[in-house]
Amino acid sequence: MKDTFVLNLVHRPELAPEYAEKITGQGHAEDISKKDLRDESLDIFKLQQEIAHKNGLKTTIQMTYASLFSDEAVALAKEHHRLYGDEIGLTLLGLPCKEFREKYKTKDFCIWMFSWKDKVAIVTDVFSLFYKKFGFYPESTGSYYLDAELINFIKEKYPSVKCAIATCWEEGPKAYHTTNNSWYTFLDGGPWNPWIPSKQNTHAPAANLSEDDGIVAIPHLSRDLLACFDGNGSNFGTHPQNVLRGMIYHDGKYPYLYNLIDQYRHLAKYNNGYSYNMMFVGPGWMNKKGRWEAPYELLVKAYEDGVAYYGKLKKEGKLIDMTMSEFADFYRKNKTYEEPECALWEDILYGGGKQLFWYSDPYFRTCVDLNQGGALIDLRPYVAKLVRPVGIGTKHIQDASYPYLVQAHYRAGYFTHYAGEGTLKSAKVAFDGEEVDLALCRTQGHYHQEGKTRVLVLDPVEIEFKLLTISLQTTFYFEEGSSAIKIKREIVASSDSEKTVEINEYLTASFGTTEYAENMTGISLKTKGTKTQKISYQYKCREVIENKARQVVAEVPQIQTIVSMQSDHPTVGYVKEGYAFSPMFTIGLKAHLKEKEAFTSWLKLEKVN
């Protein structure tokens, strides 16, 4: 797959887009069946298709429910399939239309939020209408999110489906807060690049054939893996209108968009020569009355320029455009279940030198913040493969996110308040009564691969105590097929080679999907050594220490996860219980090192039982 950059360009003829209705209908009673709205939407869809074809790119046309009632939209899809090789797929977005609201008596439009009975009825209805119009069932489908139960149902009933848009990266509380608390979709915690979902949970990649739900999943848009994590993802994606919404342009120019596309191309370096991009567009983004303080002319120009850049890359032999079903075949041919996705991501928006390293496989997703000395600021235990139904009638009506153990934005990270701690995986270095957390030491790093192990090597950081200065280097090892992260801390230089420092390798964690605390009662904390000591979480601020520890363990039954740390080095192990104001838990290992010595530990995730 040497230097294979794949593009999925997806258009949907959404004839009653919720964005456009609010603008064209300003000052009038809501009417999603207005002729001018439908005509304008179809015209914009035609324009989007024309722009793609002019640049030599084929598209996947994902027909919406509303568009299936339009003879013109159906005929257009058939013609473009014949002329350009465009794929005719079916999206579960674009449900709102006069026919849908009259039939289902609701304004809901997110398929994953409906009751199971309604999900089945709607999917059967939409797929049947598609078959009636085209004489075959689609090979691709999608939405902002598709829950595992629904994917399993679709695959069983419509086996032709092999690819689906299945999540929108980091559309969680951050997106909610930047939509004036009105966008009730919580989808974060999933992969940022294509993956094969497990039957148990869409976010968690399948580890083997028995977990494989039968489709290849792709994200809804390719996001900036740094700006999106730190802020609102809807402003930072390879969709030109996202960039306009984020006001990341000047004088009709948007170099950030091209830098973002190129950053994705660069990910081939970390993924065996393969990289990917997707753009998923509905007509509401190019409304003739303008959007995001941008006039229609700029909306069109941005889309033309963005697609032209993809077209230029294709002409230069640097890009392959595929339909969604073609990509599904390509992905299954070229990727294995346990092969991870890696991304050493640079700050291309502000140019501040900050780097995040993202890693995702069937066992966990994590993010290493090199700006915080290599602290883990996000950790999702995919190994648990949580069965977590979503929608009306379940415990999680709107919240489809995959729970975290560490999420530094929702649970504070390195804590600077007067009390308590935040979720973080880092290390503290102590000498002669002084202590420094590596999370306060900025660094950068580089990546390489050793067989099936991905290696992230951080530049050494200098730590200055009153009577000693050391240079400490951190290296992370991610072994394919393992649910453990190997972490090595080495003192590469010291002002006094005989002096020792204490390394305190710790994980402070919690669980949840939002910034609000969950009930920690029932979590079990253990040290294992010459004897086993245990704390059953009751918010009592207790701590136990084992001087000859083999392992420190936290069992979190609420998310069916066991997280542990162990080392092959003589260690002191400890576990700490939090309290109501700081509802966290900490597990840690301590060792003493001097110059040219290293402390290696493993952070491991397992499923309960």
Question: How would you portray this structure in words?
Answer:
The chain has 609 residues and is an alpha+beta fold. It has 2 domains: 4-346, TIM Barrel; 363-607, Beta-galactosidase, Chain A, domain 5. The strands form 5 sheets. Strands 16, 17, 18, 19, 20, 22, 23, 25, 26 and 29 form a 10-stranded antiparallel β-sheet that branches. A 6-stranded antiparallel β-sheet has the order 15-14-21-28-27-24, with no helix packed on it. A hairpin with a 4-residue loop joins strand 19 (469-479) and strand 20 (484-494). The longest helix has 20 residues, at 35-54. The radius of gyration is 25 Å and the shape is globular. The model has no long low-confidence stretch (mean pLDDT 94).
Distance between the termini: 38 Å
Structural class: alpha+beta
CATH architecture classification name of the largest domain: Alpha-Beta Barrel
Classified by CATH, the class of the largest domain is: Alpha Beta
Low-pLDDT ranges: none
Strand content: 25-35%
Question: Count of helical segments?
Answer: 12
**Rg (C-alpha, Å):** 25 Å
Count every beta strand, where a strand is a DSSP E run of 2 or more residues. Answer: 29
Domain module tally: 2
Mean pLDDT: 94
State the helicity in percent bands. 10-25%
In CATH, the topology of the largest domain is named TIM Barrel
Largest sheet: 10 strands, antiparallel
General shape: globular
Per CATH, the superfamily of the largest domain is Uncharacterised protein PF12979, DUF3863
